[in-house]
Write a structure and sequence with these properties.
Layout lengths: L21 H22 L6 H8 L2 H32 L4 H16 L2 H9 L7 E4 L2 E4 H4 L2 H27 L2 H9 L4 H31 L11 H12 L2 H30 L9 H8 L26
């Protein structure tokens, strides 16, 4: 008598039993307990006046400094990205003059601290009292204000780091892409900006996001040249009311808010440029999709399947 496969429902859900990680759960409870205890100790500390934090968090002086910090971050990153792309292309150029100039720029600005660069730009009038030639010149202190000095110091320094990030992204693209574009008659410049750089963005975006967050926090250095950024405004208020720690908490809260927003933007950009790449979908989504009922079925439940140990539908 020929054996018949047992009728089973192909839509029967898989009963997946998750593995319990007791070590992670215990360590998680310990971490949460310590964090709650720390937050409670800070919140109930008698030496902190939280009313001062609340009064100044949205104060006009703090908000004006916050706007300066955001402006410096955005403008410095724009300068850094534009310079970084240009210098990276020069660095990869077969032209020895362009290559040497780009290498010297990276060497100079990465080799000196950004704080020193800020002070040099702010005190540029000591070396060049006037900028220009003859009658067409201006007083250096009039042109190089504290904000301009901060913008030059942060932007030019960022350009050196972005150049290496962009260069690494360009080198990550297979050279066959450039060769194929050249074979189609595209020029070197068009190949770089239309073929290579769009593909390199997937590699460039993560470190660029880190540079944005670093730049956001690095703007606090401009307080040494009296630029009216967020930290400078907080210090100005604390010099009047002597609530130093409270005003530092106010500045820290705004830095955390801006950093969080920057991180979310970075995550969205990474998802945008990772489309079409194998394995780009989040692991959690892939696992849940594979565990969907009916996604994985038993071979015996497939239509026309033969039971194990049978051949040609006859029992062995």
């Amino acid at each position: 008598m020929s054996g018949q496969p047992a009728s089973t429902d192909a839509k029967t859900p898989i009963r997946a039993i998750p593995v319990r990680h007791w070590g992670q759960q215990i360590s998680g409870v310990i971490v949460v307990t310590v964090l709650v205890a720390l937050l409670y100790a800070v919140a109930t500390n008698d030496n902190l006046d939280w009313s001062v934090v609340g009064e100044n968090l949205f104060g006009p002086t703090i908000l004006s400094g916050l706007w300066v910090t955001i402006s410096l971050t955005v403008l410095s990153m724009i300068i850094g990205v534009v310079l970084g792309v240009a210098v990276a292309v020069m660095r990869l150029s077969p032209n020895r003059v362009l290559n040497s100039v780009a290498g010297g720029y990276i060497w100079a600005f990465r080799g000196t601290p950004v704080l020193v660069q800020l002070l040099l730009w702010f005190n540029l009038a000591l070396f060049f009292p006037r900028l220009g030639m003859g009658e067409f010149s201006l007083d250096t202190n009039t042109v190089i204000t504290a904000f301009v000095a901060a913008l030059l110091g942060l932007g030019l320094n960022e350009g050196a780091y972005m150049a290496e990030i962009v260069r690494g992204g360009i080198l990550s693209v297979d050279h066959g892409q450039s060769e194929a574009a050249m074979a189609l008659g595209m020029r070197r410049r068009s190949t770089m900006f239309k073929i290579v750089l769009p593909q390199a963005m997937r590699v460039i975006i993560p470190p660029m996001g880190n540079e944005l967050i670093t730049m956001l926090k690095m703007t606090s250095l401009v307080t040494v040249i009296a630029a009216p950024d967020l930290l400078n405004r907080a210090q100005t208020i604390s010099a009047r009311n002597f609530y130093i720690f409270e005003l530092l908490i106010v500045a820290s809260i705004w830095y955390l808010v801006l950093t969080t927003i920057s991180t979310l933007i970075q995550m969205q950009l990474e998802k945008r440029f990772a489309r079409g790449v194998a394995g780009a979908a989040p692991r959690r989504q892939r696992v849940l999709r594979n565990l969907t009922p009916g996604r994985v079925t038993s071979p015996a439940a497939a239509p026309g399947a033969q039971p194990v140990g049978t051949k040609g539908g006859a029992a062995s």
